[in-house]
Amino acid sequence: MKKFYITDHAEPKSETYLNDQFAVLSRSGLNNAEKHLINELVFLKEPKRILIAENRTGAVAMIAKELYPEAEICVHNIDKYYTDKIEKNLRRNKLDKIKVFCTPDIPEEKYDAVFIQCSKANAIKELYIDWVDETYAYLKKKGKLVVGLETREVWLEDHIKLLFGSITFNNYKQSGTSLISRKNDEKEIPLFPRDSFECRLTAEESMPLTSRPGVFAHHRVDGGAYSLMHIAEAKDGDKVFDMGCGIGTVGIGLAKKHYLSGITFVDSNARALESTRHNCKINKIIDTTFILDAEGATSIKNSFDVYLANPPYFTQYKIAELFVETGYRVLKRGGNAWLVARNADKLKEIMMELFGNAKVIRYEGYEVVVSKKK
């Protein structure tokens, strides 16, 4: 039995797959959608190139490589956090021949099979419709699409039927299913959808913005980003760091008001960063740097005058704490960190502890906390 480790936990949970050929040792077991993908791997016929999209651990790719050692195995995510996890797991298992991509879109190759993990927690409707469309475009004739799900998603079934013409359900249970289709024809379909809208800067002026499926607050300006953009301050010549930039609303808005000496945009979502790059171009923002990163750009220290962040507030504030720590590290002495939240009580506490000062400013249902690095 071949074993794959995706954890360093002292007492990992072991699960076996494909008639006990493989065991995956993890902290709490694999996601059900991921299990369905593994079970479908054996039904391929001499594939030359396989793509696994939106997997979170790399386990599907590891087993695929063992089953088809001559095939090119590619793993794709749009989030650098999960990409880093997968690369770590591949190193842990000493697997260096699996290609890992963190890009806005599926790598433009021709695939014999594409496996997409659609977990309930990340079942963003427009994003997965987008993945299916890209898969159709990049599959070879007679190529196979397999989507692993935790629960039934009728909207996804309907879209696959419409595009591929037919669909097979395998192993449908309360714990999930696999949706399977083959590409039997070639048709032109629109790819890379992008939505456009306006963000108000002043009563007289607005700026154009765009977003893509899979980006936070797609189709609209996020209320927290909007409030932060209007409250945060900078001076001409300042150097700005926009952490978790999303589509770039806050940093671009500040750059429209001031002659900044440079602005660095950081996000873990490759589509968000691509949207920011596009939005900088259409707003004629120059002197820009774009960093795809999930760990707070740890190499940067004492370099910026203004720090902007609209962090997510889950995982017991661990991510918000990372954002605050990053702000303290990247700022010069005398620089200001501006962070936003719906309710900033906990955020203010975290910033007060690290910076030694914190002031809350309320704007349109949000609270912006500003701290100075002394």
Secondary structure elements and pairings:
Blueprint: E1 2-5, E2 13-17, E3 22-26, H1 32-40, E4 49-53, H2 59-67, E5 72-77, H3 80-92, E6 99-102, E7 111-118, H4 125-138, E8 139-149, H5 154-164, E9 168-173, E10 176-182, E11 195-200, E12 206-211, H6 223-231, E13 239-243, H7 249-257, E14 262-267, H8 270-282, E15 288-292, E16 304-309, H9 318-330, E17 331-341, H10 345-355, E18 359-363, E19 366-372
Parallel strand pairs: 1-3, 4-5, 4-7, 5-6, 7-8, 13-14, 13-16, 14-15, 16-17
Antiparallel strand pairs: 2-3, 8-10, 9-10, 11-12, 17-19, 18-19
Notes on the protein architecture:
The protein is α/β, with parallel strands linked by helices. The mean pLDDT is 95. The protein has 2 domains: 2-182, Rossmann fold, CATH 3.40.50; 195-372, Vaccinia Virus protein VP39 (Rossmann fold), CATH 3.40.50. It has 10 helices and 19 strands.
What brief labels describe this structure?
Rossmann fold, 19 strands, globular
Compute the number of strand runs: 19
Gap between N and C termini:
58 Å
Helicity level: 25-40%
Per CATH, what is the topology of the largest domain? Answer: Rossmann fold
- Treating each run of at least 4 consecutive H or I residues as one helix, how many helices? 10
The CATH level-2 architecture of the largest domain is identified as 3-Layer(aba) Sandwich
Structural class: alpha/beta
**Average pLDDT across residues?**
95
For the sheet with most strands, the description reads: 7 strands, mixed
What count of domains describes the coordinates?
2
Net shape: globular
Fraction in beta strands: 25-35%
Order of helices and strands: EEEHEHEHEEHEHEEEEHEHEHEEHEHEE
Please give the CATH class of the largest domain: Alpha Beta
- Describe the strand arrangement of the main beta sheet, using strand numbers: 6-5-4-7-8-10-9
Supply Rg: 23 Å
CATH superfamily of the largest domain: Vaccinia Virus protein VP39
Provide the low-confidence segments as ranges: none
